[in-house]
Known about the structure:
single chain, alpha+beta, Immunoglobulin-like, 2 domains, 4-stranded antiparallel beta sheet, 3-stranded antiparallel beta sheet, 4 helices, 7 strands
Amino acid sequence: MTRFDLAPLYRATVGFDQIADMMDRVLANDVGTQSYPPYNIEKTDDDAWRISVAVAGFSDDDLNVEVRENALLISGRRSEDAAEDRTFLHRGIATRAFERRFTLADHVRVTGATHENGMLHVDLVREVPEALKPRRIEIAKSDAPTNTGVLEADKVN
Length: 157
């Protein structure tokens, strides 16, 4: 795999540390190792998303959804007590412990999570504070023209 050195990006920019860190994380992850559990990310509105994770075999008590330091952490740990007294001829439904981490952009917050029909749905929305939203500045109209660069002859002599 090709490795990119992002050091020049750090010394040539100011304030883009998060982008460089994100690129480092994406390039460092091996995509083939994180396939369980499968998930979808869908855009539900201009500033809203839904992450759906397939969690067949997990109950609400087995699942945990947390937001920590601009990261959404979804984890599942099923107690093995229920499976110990059964004998499986074929076990195709994986109920092993998992942890999925999603990095959230600034001002994106989790609005809720629901678990139905073997799917965990986590809803997210971007809420930009009023202070950071663009605002239009009215240009005042002046009634009289101003000649700030022109001096009258009487005042010079």
